[in-house]
Structures are given as structure tokens and as C-alpha cells.
Amino acid sequence: MDRPREYILQVTPAGRKVRARSGESILSALGRAGVHIFNPCGGDGTCGRCLVLIKDSPKGEARQVLACQEEVGADLHVHLPSASRMEPSGNGHVAHKAGPIDFPDPSGSPRVRAVPLDVASAEERAGLSDWDALEQALADEGVQRVEPTLSALTDLPSAVREDDGSATAIVARSAGDVDSLTAILPASEPRKVWGLAVDLGTTGLTVALADLDSGETLGCLTALNPQVTHGPDVISRIIAANRGGVREQQELAAGAIEALAARLCERRGGSLSDVHDVVVSGNPTMIHLLVGLPPKYLRLAPYVPVAHRLPPLRAWDMGLELHPEAQLRVLPGISSYVGGDIVAGVLATGLDHAAEPTLLVDLGTNGEMVMGCADWMMGTAASAGPCLEGGGIECGGPAVPGAVEAVTIADPEDAPGLDIIGDASPDCVCGTGLVDLVAELQRTGVVTPAGELLADASPRVGGDGSEAYYRLVTPSEAQASGGRELHISQTDIRNLIQAKGAIFAAVETLATTVGMDLTDIGSIMLAGGLGSRLDAESVVRIGLMPDVPRDRIHFVGNTSLGGAMSCLLHDDAGDRAEEIASGITPIDLGQVPEYMDSYTASLFLPHTDQGRFPSVARGAEEVTAES
Fold first, then answer.
1. How far is residue 39's CA from residue 58's CA, in Å, rounded to a whole number?
2. Which of 106, 76, 107, 93 is nearest to 199 (CA)?
3. Nearest 5°: phi and psi at 617?
4. What are the strands, taking DSSP E only, across 477-547?
5. Which of left, alpha, beta for 149 (phi over 0: left; psi -120 to 50: alpha)?
6. Best CA proximity match to 479, nearest among 437, 429, 426, 434
7. Which residue has the higher pLDDT, 147 or 50?
8. CA end-to-end span of the chain, whole Å?
9. Which of 82-86, 91-95, 278-282 has the highest mean pLDDT?
10. How far apart are the C-alpha atoms of 395 and 124, rounded to whole Å?
11. Cis bond leading into 606, ω under 30°?
């Protein structure tokens, strides 16, 4: 069989030459070469975020194309605009203006620790070996029953002689009775014992670096999960993996984690070899793909994962070139779609100690949630799709500089007020901006309860013959600001209604299962990147959350990362995470007939039963009276 012809893509500003096979998309060719661009829709051509400029020659005429839709048939010059590049962002926060992560008290006992030692010299030992002497020095410091790794034994002779016996032992606790000596350093050698907390989401990836000696958080970076090139949600990732893409997705995830970690280490004057421990939080599909497990049966009845709990793994075996003895630990999962990320959220928020019924929802593509208190907990997941994180939306994008994150409409006749992330021109609409916009359109009567845009309600409503849209930023306004024309289409609104309907119906199903009314929920905690900047009024107005007093709704940020950091800095937090996972009863929505009824009833703004949202109904009456 003839091999497909290959072409060369000269990529700027990356300065890379990428080989592409005839007929494959530019997006695929770039992804194989490790050049990643925004593609929240997974190559469907719907989000418009993978725009690139291509030319057949340096002097040829440039044209703008979607990288996911343009097939390679010649050598090309490919320019990646800044708006399309997938680059990490953040400086100690999950995302720009997302608010600080509520990291745990640093005064804990991490699993990996540095132990200063004074080791007797060879002349003073009466024939004891270097290891015997080191073992005695460890015992003097209260560290009993330790076994060395081969690499530590290799470094041992020089380490205990260089500074007259003064040395530093790096000791890792194990699940059993015997700890591990992973490294031994001369006391004069600069000592950095760092760890990584990782939140591996379906759409986003966040990595935090911590000093395990002091408990200090040294930095945090976030980026899109490059696995989006294989699809926007867990089902599409599983399908891609079943076609032979497990290793590729594993390499993408590991490579992205390592790239963010390298930047964090460099900023603090260290290197990846200073990282001795890693804790990862993620949903079951993301964890399967990270460690290279086949996820096939996660989407086939009866939906069984390979394992809910994984033993500690060597980071190097996962493709992470950290300290050679660094381990990678994964927070335990609960069911096929309820994973360690929501367990981390319970750990970070203390829901398992709550005195009254409390709801924690991780607002993202997978829509995981737990309802309960100290006496009981139930968990489930609702497939919300990527629109809550800016994916699958025509002018959508992640919460990066240039993204519209909040919208106010004082008068439907006038331009809306926009809050834009960073000192940037408007470039896309992120999830919080989308929720705000639809809530405001509903409040001002531009959108009907069925989610239909009304052309006579605002001059900013138009259409292209196929569907209506609302102009958030008109072409003339974009030209004046240096940004993009932005609009929300009828399809975008339907996508959001379906997403919020899935979340609300799941919440209602959990409450109904234990005989609770939604108004009985004492506290609602919204987590994730989205759960840091949302407006409580907007959340209720569109029917994403029940109509409860707004002071019951709390935005708690990235609790998945916060829980992972707890386990990194506090060894006993890992035991508590295991207890939490065992204490949550999973609810499979597919096995609850009432869920689909609830979902169908939720496909209105805010709901088909307007009486369930009295505060929203009152606002609608006021708008009608004014008009």
C-alpha cells in the first residue's frame, strides 16, 4: 500500500516545521507535533476558535481558515494568531480574575519530607556500612523502618562524606509500615523538595507548585487540556481512545502537565528534578487516559471503570520527567462518571462535616455534584457539555484575556456593558459571560422563556437567513476597540439551556431521591473555574440553580485543585479522601426514570413551571409592565 504523501507546514510564530499527511487537517498535524491551538468543539468546526492564516508561499496571498476543517494538500505557511494559541496563563490564581484558590493550611505533615541528618564518619562506625550508619541517623531523628531506592544508595557514599556527615534525606511515607528513602544530598547542596497538585479537567488543566518543607504555594498556572483535539467531552475522548488514541491522549495530558510544571519551577529558580510528589484530581475518564488505562467500558453498560482506586505510580512511567523517584498519586473515584475531582471538592469544602443538607456542584463539562452532610452523601454527574466553559459556542472561548466574563443590559436598545478579562480587546465569550448574557436577555425580554430571540425587542437582534443572533459586539464596535465581532446565536442559547437543564435536573433528582424539596438545601456551593465569577442572580434567573435566597449560593473556586493540594501537604488528607469516596452513594441518572422528565421540564428559562422560580417570575412581570 502506498504511504500518504507528506507536506511541510512552516508554523509561525512557533518557528516550527511540521510534517503533515495528505488529507489530514491542519489541526491534527499541529497536534501531533505538540503545537496546540484552541479547539473547544473538538474539531466540529462550530466554535471558530482554531482560526489560522495560511499561505502557499512566503509571498502568496494569506487566507483565514479553521484549522480543524482545512485539509493539507500542499506545503503551507501557517500563522497562528495570538487568539488561537493555547498558552498557559495565571500567576497564582486558577484563571484571570477567577479569585484565589482556597488552599489548605500549610502547617501539615506532607507525605514526602526532608530530614536533616548527622551521619557518623567511616572511622567512627566500627565497621558499619554507609547504609547502616544512615539508618541509625534516621532512627535518631525518629524515622524508623526505611528502605532505600537504588538511586539513593548510589548517591549515598558521596553524600555522607562531602560535608563531614551532614546530609539531607528525602523520605517518602508509604501505605505500609516501611517508608522509602528516595534521595540523599550533602547538607551544603541547595535543597528543594517540591510537589505538584494537578486538576485535570475535561476542558481545563491547572497545576500548582508547592514547597513541601514550608507548605508555601509557589505558583499556579492554567491552560486548556490539549486533549480537546480529540473531542470536547468525555464520550468523544473515549471514542477516540477506542480507535487507538489512548497513548496519544496520555502523552498530550502528561506533556501539558510537565510544560506547566517546568514554567513554575523555572520561575522559582528550580527545575523539574526538584519535584518529588504529584497528586492528581480528575474525573474517571481523564484519569484513565492520563495513566494509559483503556476507558472503553466506561461508556458501555454496565459502565465499569478499570479501577476506582489506583496505587501510587512512578511519575516517570507516566511520561513526567520529574525527580526519578517522584510518585504520582490519584484521588479515588466513586463511579464511572463521578471521580476524584468531586471527592477533592468535598475534602476542600468540608461538606462531609456539614450540619445541614449542602450541595456542591463542580460546574464543567462533566457536571459532577454531591449533596449531603455529615450523616449522608450522594453523588452523580450530568453531561452538561463544554458550553459552560466556552466550548461549542460560535464566539465562545476559555476565561483568558479578551474573554467577556460578565454582561449587563440596562436598555435593550443600547449596547450592553461588558466586563473583559485583562487589559485586552473583546475576543470571545467565556462561560460566565454566556450565563450572564442569557440571563440579561431574559430579564429585559429579548429572549422568551422558550429561549427564542425576539427581533423586535432589540435592534441588536439580527439574522443570516438560517437563525437569529444577538450582537454582543457589532462589527463597527469591534473595529473601534480592536477586538472581534461577537454574537450569540439561537443555537448557542439552546446549548446553554440544555446544559443548565441537565445540571438542574440532576440536582432535583438527588433531592427527590431523599425526599427533600429544593428549598430545603441549606447551602449551595458552585465550584470550578466557572464557580468563581458567576453572578448568583444570573444562575437562578436561567434556572441553573433552584430559586433559593441568594445568600445561600456560594462560589468556592477550584475545589478540585484545593483538595489535591490538601493531599499533597497533609498526609492524613489522603486517608480522609478515601473515607469520603467510600461514604458517597453514587446515583446513576440513566437508571432514574424521573430524571428525563425533570430534564425535559427544565428546557425553559428558567423552567416550564414558572411557579418554581417566583423571584424570576416577579421580575418578568415588572418588565412586561414597563413595556
1. 26
2. 93
3. -60, -40
4. 486-489, 523-527
5. beta
6. 426
7. 147
8. 70
9. 278-282
10. 73
11. yes
DSSP helix/strand/coil, 518? helix
C-alpha cell at 576: 480522609
| Ordered strands of the 76-79 beta sheet | 16-21, 6-12, 76-79, 51-55, 63-66
Q: What residue has cell string 499527511?
A: 21
Q: Is the pLDDT of residue 470 over 90?
A: yes
Task: Report the distance separating Cα 360 and Cα 345, nearest Å.
Answer: 8
Q: Is 82 exposed, middle or buried (0-12, 13-18, 19+ CB in 10 A)?
A: exposed
> For residue 580, what is its C-alpha cell?
469520603
Bridge partner list, 359? 371, 524
Cell of 559: 475545589
Distance CA 351, CA 137 (A): 42
Distance (Å, rounded) from C-alpha 76 to C-alpha 152?
50
* DSSP assignments along 392-458, one per residue: T-TTB--SSTTEEEEEE-S-TTSPPEEEESSS----EE-HHHHHHHHHHHHHTTSB-TT-PBPGGG-
Grid cell 489541526 is found at: 27
Q: How far apart are CA 24 and CA 168, in angstroms?
A: 53
CB 181 within 8 A of CB 168: no
Q: What is the mean pLDDT of the chain?
A: 88
| Rounded Cα distance, 586 and 137, in Å | 48
User: Structure pTM?
Assistant: 0.86
- How far is the C-alpha of 520 from the C-alpha of 511, rounded, in Å? 9
Spell out the residues 6+ positions from residue 413 whose beta carbon is closer than 8 angstroms to its own.
458, 459
